[in-house]
Amino acid sequence: MADPSPTPGIHHVTCVAGDPQANIDFWVETLGLRLVKRSINQDDPGTYHFFYADSEGTPGTSMTFFPWEDLSAGKVGSGQVSRTAFRVPPGSLDFWEDRFEEYGVEYDDRLERFGETVLPFSDPDGLPVELVETEIPDDDPTDPWTEFVPEEHAIRGFHSVTLWVADPIPTQELLETMGLEETGTEQTDADAGEERTRFAATGHVGKYVDVVPTIEGGRQGHGTVHHVAFQTPTDEDQDAMRAAVRKEGLNPTSQIDRHWFRSVYFREHAGILFELATNGPGYDSDEPLDALGERLVLPGEFEAQRDQIEANLTPIEIPTAER
């Protein structure tokens, strides 16, 4: 099989939350992302799966959550995605600091990283998130949603993820196999004795992955990342990338139909769960674009269990500007 086409970048990031209503209120109203899909965890249908993205659910913009209410708080550590960063247009961070003050969001001082200004903050579950001011190119594929946040300051998809690993070399070599290129190193924000190494994919959105060595212990729970998915736009791209990953000594799954994309999963060398996701058929394959997220979508065989599934889910209300 031919070498895989380089991944354009991050497809989505999936995280663990607690209270589903608090999660929706924060990601929709406070951060201004659109709920493009309201569904269930297809491996645990008693749990919601929320997808937040730009106005059209463009690949590279969707942050998704499993609100497992019974789990305890997690702790970010080695073998995890430690931070997820989103792009915002230049000059936006004053707006976002004012908004965070208004909504009571915990945030830290701005910092400079690889020549860009970064605003770190946390969601209601303590999930570490960042906004990064960066130029948005004229041909950018994202389409900002403006129900709560004006277009000139709106989030424009992913900027990067940061991976915490004990031994960075195998993870870095895997990223290069996936088509990302090393672009530079910097001392980390927390410890001047450690280096952050940046890798860049080929696309505009979600193009960066930073690798930071650490032996800090962690555990999964509320406020941690469950997995990060990378774009393999077509089935052929995914097949080739899956074969390349196997050659690296890893054990990718067979393709799994996730209804809005098709997925392959594997744990990279440090134990972080990676996904390869196709770009289609998309979130509008089963709902009109103007009605995304308005109803609970139960893919495939789950529709026949709707009454039982809905009875076990916590009722939620979607924020709207009118409310």
From TrEMBL:
Gene3D superfamilies: 2,3-Dihydroxybiphenyl 1,2-Dioxygenase, domain 1. It holds the Pfam family Glyoxalase. One of its GO terms (molecular function) is dioxygenase activity. Keywords: Dioxygenase, Oxidoreductase. Residues 9-134, 157-279 form the VOC domain. PROSITE patterns: VOC. PANTHER family: RING-CLEAVING DIOXYGENASE MHQA-RELATED, RING-CLEAVING DIOXYGENASE MHQE-RELATED. This is Ring-cleaving dioxygenase. It comes from Halovenus carboxidivorans.
